[in-house]
Design a protein that fits this description.
single chain; 176 residues; alpha/beta; two-stranded antiparallel ribbon; 5 helices; 7 strands; disordered C terminus
């Protein structure tokens, strides 16, 4: 039975001291905008609260360019959100095992995600979770598909709730 991503995410967030959420994707390539769009929505919904130990980064197509920011922040948990091709139903969210990622097998960015994850884990150390979102269309100029929009609309409130619960649990926040 596949590992349920919600349970893993809930447990890992609860146990984290510092969290980095890294969105990966290209807004001009249809469903590849899922990660950056999620990050934008999270940022908007969390804007009234200042999280001392939360870093949100839009890594675009080159998340490796932000490795210095991540290493400086020293998160105990890094969550990478990316459109990943695995043959699942479009809009499906699933845990990606970075060790099983082949060069550009399921990801759409320049440096293979497996190398980036390994680099982060070896230089920080951080626990890295890769959440893949199965895309429907990735062509340049495509609009985001309804399946991905529905996924984002259900995922963002869940993440906001998990982060707010974590903030309350850790009591490491500042309200404006």
């Amino acid at each position: 039975m596949p590992v349920q991503w919600k349970g893993v995410l809930r447990r890992e967030i609860k146990d984290a001291k510092k969290i980095c959420i890294l969105a990966v994707g290209n807004a001009k390539r249809g469903d590849d905008t899922a990660g950056p769009l999620i990050l934008t929505m999270l940022s908007s919904r969390l804007k009234k609260r200042k999280f001392r130990n939360l870093l949100l980064i839009n890594g675009g197509e080159t998340p490796e360019n932000f490795s210095g920011n991540i290493r400086k922040f020293q998160p105990t948990l890094t969550i990478i959100i990316d459109a990943c091709i695995s043959g699942k139903k479009p809009g499906t969210i699933y845990l990606v095992n970075p060790a099983q990622i082949q060069f550009d097998d399921i990801s759409t960015h320049r440096l293979p995600l497996s190398m980036f994850v390994k680099f982060l884990e070896q230089t920080i150390p951080t626990r890295v979770i890769v959440l893949g979102i199965e895309p429907k269309k990735l062509n340049f100029g495509d609009d985001i598909s309804p399946e991905i929009n529905r996924t984002i609309d259900s995922f963002v409130p869940l993440m906001v709730q998990l982060l707010n619960d974590w903030r309350k649990l850790k009591k490491e926040f500042l309200d404006f």
